[in-house]
């Protein structure tokens, strides 16, 4: 007889928690707010904000609303494409990169360039990636 799969513990973090944490980090960086600043505004330690962003600790609904208000967005930003909760969303490599300081910096710099210069930067980045980049 095959062993019955146990349902996940209700307090375990899930893919949804990790996705919300990734979006929290991306929005915080976009707003140029440090982990310490956000922590002070919501009344927790910066370590707690780190845990939220890494998806290690789950963010309660009230706290998520508080964070959304501080980051000038709404809860839908964090939950946007979670439809049925049946299959946990995954965080893509692109979304993970975008939620870093480097991801934000490159995008802000690119937005200041006109189209021909953007294409030149993309061509340069591709050339460097092919010559020096790590395997994906």
Chart the SSEs and their pairings.
Blueprint: H1 15-30, H2 35-42, H3 46-54, H4 61-70, H5 75-79, H6 93-98, H7 101-111, H8 115-132
Helix pairs in contact: 1-3, 2-3
Summarize the structure.
This protein has 136 residues and is an all-alpha fold. Helix content is 61%, strand content 0%.
**Category by helix and strand content:** mainly alpha
**Would you list the SSEs in sequence order as H and E?**
HHHHHHHH
Q: Provide the β-strand percentage band.
A: under 5%
Q: State the CATH topology of the largest domain.
A: 434 Repressor (Amino-terminal Domain)
Give the count of helical stretches: 8
CATH class of the largest domain: Mainly Alpha
User: What is the end-to-end distance?
Assistant: 41 Å
Q: Mean pLDDT across all residues, rounded?
A: 85
How many individual β-strands? Answer: 0
Q: Which stretches of 5+ consecutive residues score pLDDT under 50?
A: none
What overall geometry do the principal axes of the alpha carbons give?
elongated
Estimate percent helicity.
55-70%
**Rg over CA atoms:** 18 Å
Q: Spell out the CATH superfamily of the largest domain.
A: lambda repressor-like DNA-binding domains
Q: How many domains make up the coordinates?
A: 2
Q: Which CATH architecture of the largest domain?
A: Orthogonal Bundle
Largest sheet: none
